Amino acid sequence: MEIWYTEKLELEKGRAVSYRVTKTLDSIQTPFQKIDIFETQSFGRMFTLDGVTMVTNKDEHSYHEMIAHIPMMSHPNPESVLVIGGGDGGTVREVLKHPSVKEVVLCEIDKAVVDISYQYFPECADAMKDKKVIHHYDDGAKFARENKGRFDVILVDSSDPVGPAEVLFKEPFYRDMASALKPTGIIATQAESFWYHGDVISSLFEFIPKIFPEYGYYYTTIPTYPSGIIGFTFLSNAIDPYKVTPDISRLPKGLKYYSPEIHKAAFVLPEFAKSFIKRKG
């Protein structure tokens, strides 16, 4: 009998996506969420939280490279980086490809995400064992609030705005992150798809201009996420994302998705998306 995993998050809107599963590898319920690990025919191993796809072997690089390298290549000298969420380790892995980095603080609310990633996704997770990585298992909003002026770059590698991640899409959290930045700091946050989630993105850009003088929205393509793309906010007190020219001499080796050309192109939006994604000026 064939087994198919169907992501049902968008089902009430008439949308779903299914993948043929060759084997169920693990399934656990944590105090925060349900974690499932599948082997799939087309995308290799798949990691889901509460029935929503987070990571697959085949396409994780397009997400992790873009959430990390756009802000890291935009900052003149990123030394201290905070990753909120991101317990699979892929974002940490990409951050550590920059030799200027002295510390990476991983703040993940659910330690089980890290533990199961070590077991099933070592190509991502083993980066979290690096001596530069400091682990905190805590609420990301609380951690940002308690670490004022500490970080050059903050990356919010969150799930969708439901359950434990809902607070990460609210104005108080963005104000807490702003206070945790150094003067030239940059934030990048997972910010949904402009095809499916215009209401969520629009709500973000209602308050973002009140907090950050420089801001933007960019995206990457990823087939296992709803609509095949996922976007990110770019937020800063000092760095205009639309004026950044990546320094090729700082480009990490062996990347599969990010390039200086992709960096520039990722901020170019279709006309319909411009109606709810604000740009300064």
Concise account of the structure shown:
This protein has 281 residues and is of the alpha/beta class.
Task: Describe the overall structure.
With 281 residues, the chain is of the alpha/beta class. The protein folds into 2 domains: 3-56, Spermidine Synthase, Chain: A, domain 2; 59-275, Vaccinia Virus protein VP39 (Rossmann fold, 3-Layer(aba) Sandwich). It is built from 8 helices and 12 strands. It has helices at residues 60-74, 90-95, 111-120, 122-125, 140-145, 171-180, 198-211, 260-265, and strands at 3-7, 17-29, 34-40, 44-49, 52-56, 80-85, 103-107, 133-136, 151-157, 181-190, 214-221, 229-236. It has a 7-stranded mixed β-sheet. Strands 1-2-3-4-5 form a 5-stranded antiparallel β-sheet, with no helix packed on it. Helix 6 (171-180) packs across helix 7 (198-211). The longest helix has 15 residues, at 60-74. The termini are far apart. Pathway: Amine and polyamine biosynthesis; spermidine biosynthesis; spermidine from putrescine: step 1/1. It catalyses: S-adenosyl 3-(methylsulfanyl)propylamine + putrescine = S-methyl-5'-thioadenosine + spermidine + H(+). GO terms for molecular function: spermidine synthase activity. Its EC number is 2.5.1.16. Belongs to the spermidine/spermine synthase family.
Cα-atom Rg, whole angstroms?
18 Å
Q: From the 3D structure, determine the CATH topology of the largest domain.
A: Rossmann fold
Low-pLDDT parts are none
- The CATH superfamily of the largest domain bears the name Vaccinia Virus protein VP39
- Count of domains: 2
Give the oligomeric state.
single chain
Order of helices and strands: EEEEEHEHEHHEHEHEHEEH
Secondary-structure-based class equals alpha/beta
Tell me the number of strands. Answer: 12
Mean pLDDT: 94
Strands ordered across the widest β-sheet = 8-7-6-9-10-12-11
**How far apart lie the N and C ends?**
57 Å
Alpha plus pi helix count: 8
Which architecture of the largest domain does the CATH hierarchy give at level 2? 3-Layer(aba) Sandwich
CATH class of the largest domain: Alpha Beta
Keywords: Polyamine biosynthesis, Spermidine biosynthesis, Transferase
Domain PABS: 2-237
Pathway: Amine and polyamine biosynthesis; spermidine biosynthesis; spermidine from putrescine: step 1/1
Subunit structure: Homodimer or homotetramer.
